[in-house]
Amino acid sequence: MLKKLLIANRGEIAVRVIRAAQDLGIATVAVYSAADADALHVQLADEAVLIGPPAAKKSYLNIEALLAAALSTGCDSIHPGYGFLAENAAFSDAVTAAGLVFVGPSGDAIRLMGDKVSARTAAADAGVPVVPGSKGRVESIEAARAVLEETGFPVMIKAAAGGGGRGIRIAHSLIEFEQGFAQAQAEALAAFGDGGLYMEKVIARARHIEVQVLADGQNAIHCYERECSLQRRRQKVWEEAPSRALSPALREELCASAVALARAVSYSGAGTVEYLYDDAADRFYFIEMNTRIQVEHPVTEAITGIDLVAEMLRIAGGEPLWLVQGDVTVKGHAIEVRINAEDPARDFAPFPGTVGALRIPGGPGVRFDSMLYNGYQVPPFYDSLLAKLIVHAETREAALARLTRALKELEIGDLVTTRALFLALAADPDVRAGDVHTRWLEGWLVENAAALAS
Amino acid sequence: MTPIHSPLPGTFYRSAAPGQPPLKADGDAVAIGDVIGLIEVMKSFHEVKSEVAGENIRFLVDNEDPVMAGAALAELG
């Protein structure tokens, strides 16, 4: 078991990790930037170390300062949370090289899954369905034509070194494709210093479904799926578990494929295998694997009763996975919404400020993961996530009712947040029917801009 | 001296993108509506437009410095 853990993060996830560690009797060391001296994670940890000025680059992303803080306080381990350095292979390697335990996978596993082409190849090799497309990089237009026979049109041409939606081009015909291919090569070389391209069929309408896995390097299990189809600019805003779109047989197939991939790469820790699910074709396709704990992990905790962060800490401490697949059962339905310091009435403009009269929702089936307290000044330097409201109930309908009830209980004073958006979404017929896809919310936001502004 | 204030709290940037020259150099003239820098607030970027005109701008805040809302970013002579 780990003895003393440094949490290389801030905000609600730092608080979440500190709580899990303290529940297990592990001593905790928080780190903070000059802007976070009053932050909740600093108050809750057993010790706290100032690691630099407000800019994340000089504090939460400063590997040297983080290692120095861990070594000077006698830590034996570092949890990276999500964001910042959580999927930075060099950080995982540096922590290990310093003689400490990185609570997450090895640098090699992060590298394998971080490169889109190698991740796709690993998935295909493990028998996981991937979006029809090239096996790896497409070196020539002749090779590309052969791939087109499998994908058809429209087809995506993607830069191997791209990411976050950059370096993507869509062709609707052979003429567009042949013109676009050479341009895409030149653009990728200019933008990323790497002209490598790969190709994927465009799945026009799909849900985002992801499978939570836990693995200890030898064994792997899944904790069922989450559906995160409500997204704005590719950022999830609302997550649920389980997905109502899957048949029991397809759910088993999907979850088994995630376990197969985790086993194939000897994965260790908590991870998430992400898929697109095409309702019309009743097929799922691998997109990527995230090698960290995710923002939306609490919905899985709600339906399975498993503390995923505690499991990460046990695995990192060298314990073999103590859960077997049969231990993992699903009970009820859970929904999480992200309460961000953003104004949905003004195109989600950020809204840092001071927390006024805070009223946190409670009662049965309600969880509120946050770093807020009365009088807390939300600093402008980091992301806008203030809190995650998670509700759990016997059925999805009951969870929606509970979500509305809990959102009405929530008060944060004068801070403008995304709360109003979720009250509107929880009442929307399509959301209530679960009839959504990954591009549904952006259309809804355009149609409902006036209602949100009033 | 006429100050130009930051409309938002966040991180101040002198150029539109990393590696690009500053939007305004010390000594430049500024017209109303000129963009003199960017403020990054919670990972989103906002242009700082001057609401005043003047000669000889002098920056009071360095590139990438944290600023509070209302802080004087620069002065016009």
Structure overview:
The complex is a heterodimer of chains A (454) and B (77). Chain A folds into 3 domains: 4-103, Rossmann fold, CATH 3.40.50.20; 132-201, 2-Layer Sandwich (Dna Ligase, domain 1); 207-453, D-amino Acid Aminotransferase, Chain A, domain 1 (2-Layer Sandwich), CATH 3.30.470.20. Helices cover 35% and strands 27% of the residues of chain A. Chain A has helices spanning 11-23, 40-44, 63-72, 89-97, 107-114, 116-125, 141-151, 174-192, 248-264, 297-304, 308-316, 396-409, 419-426, 429-433, 440-447, 449-453, and strands at residues 4-7, 27-33, 47-52, 77-79, 101-102, 155-163, 166-171, 197-201, 207-216, 220-232, 235-241, 268-278, 283-290, 333-340, 342-343, 349-350, 358-359, 366-370, 385-393, 411-412. In chain A, the strands form 5 sheets. Chain A has an 8-stranded antiparallel sheet with strand order 13-12-9-10-11-14-19-18, sandwiched between helices. In chain A, strands 3-2-1-4-5 form a 5-stranded parallel sheet. A 3-stranded antiparallel sheet of chain A has the order 7-6-8. Chain A is globular and about 60 Å long. Chain A starts with a strand and ends with a helix. Chain B is an all-beta fold. Chain B has strands spanning 2-5, 10-13, 35-41, 44-49, 57-59, 66-67, 72-76. In chain B, the strands form 2 sheets. Chain B has a 4-stranded antiparallel sheet with strand order 4-3-2-6, with no helix packed on it. A 3-stranded antiparallel sheet of chain B has the order 1-7-5, with no helix packed on it. In chain B, a hairpin with a 2-residue loop joins strand 3 and strand 4 (44-49). Chain B is globular, with a radius of gyration of 11 Å. The mean pLDDT of chain B is 93. At the A-B interface, strand 16 of A face loops of B.
